[in-house]
Amino acid sequence: MTTPTDLRDREAASPRSPTVRGRATLRGHLSIMRVDHWVKQVFVLPGVVAALSQGTQDIPGGLWGRLVLGMLSVCLVSSSNYVINEVLDAPSDLSHPVKCRRPVPSGLVSIPLAYVQWIALMVVGVGLGMALNRPFGITMFVLWVMGCAYNIRPARTKDVPYLDVLSESINNPLRMLGGWYMTGTLAFPPASLLISYWMVGCYFMAIKRYAEYRDIDDPVRAAAYRKSFSYYNLQRLLVSIVFHASASMLFLGAFVMRYRLELILAFPLIALVMAVYLGLAFKPESAVVNPEKLYREPVLMGAVVACAVALILLMFVDIPVLDTILKPTGLQIRG
User: Fold this and answer.
1) Tens digits of per-residue pLDDT, 244-272?
2) How far apart are CA 75 and CA 80, in angstroms?
3) How many whole angstroms separate alpha carbon 263 and alpha carbon 54?
4) What is the pTM assigned to this prediction?
């Protein structure tokens, strides 16, 4: 016969119920910086490539030094945002079958020290950014502010349906802007490129939300873990994925037609990457929930590398015949 005591013992032993608490450790504090997520800063590089492709006449010397300093700045500011996210999400993480094992809910982090860590990482990261140049430093500060808006009440945009995806993904164009200013140019990049980059970030984030919701497979528990899940369902998330994919390609097309027609040749590869990524969302325990593990997906990585190589080449190689083929001249529309 199963007694109430037996049930409590089973619950305590369950990996879904992190009832055992440890004490604060250095490893716990290093873990909440999510250094393994620094790989996401690769999204800075398209901004670097875009700036360099516009011509090097206004790019000052010392580029490599600025890139190293800039990447360190981006990583530290991102870690500052990760720290506050880990601290403030700890109560809801207890309702997640995997995230309940994170350092904060497991008691491996001193909360007062974590707040000091959060501010210190921001100060150093933004300070390095300001040392590089003022536009880059301001961009890093805005990146940090958006992390605050995403995590901290009363804003806490991560709790608001659709705004959670939009506000989280604003990090994409901010990273691109950071990469642009790392080169030393002070000009502002095309708005169509930044918006496209924002929308494709929303596309990836909406897919992550879809996979998270499906894996939890319990609307009540999903809502306890992430407040926006009380509104979302699989149909609404799929519709949002289609919207963000369409918007990203619309603005990318506007950029291509106005600034770099050669990039149109990369569209099939871009579509392939987006299709493969969407396909991953339907796998159980999909890697899209933990993007830092996407390198384990060979088909996706192959498509990403091919797409990246094509985009870089097409940013620098001129193909005049495309202008003749794709830009009709002398066309008159009679009303």
Assistant:
1) 999 999 999 999 999 999 999 999 999 99
2) 9
3) 14
4) 0.84
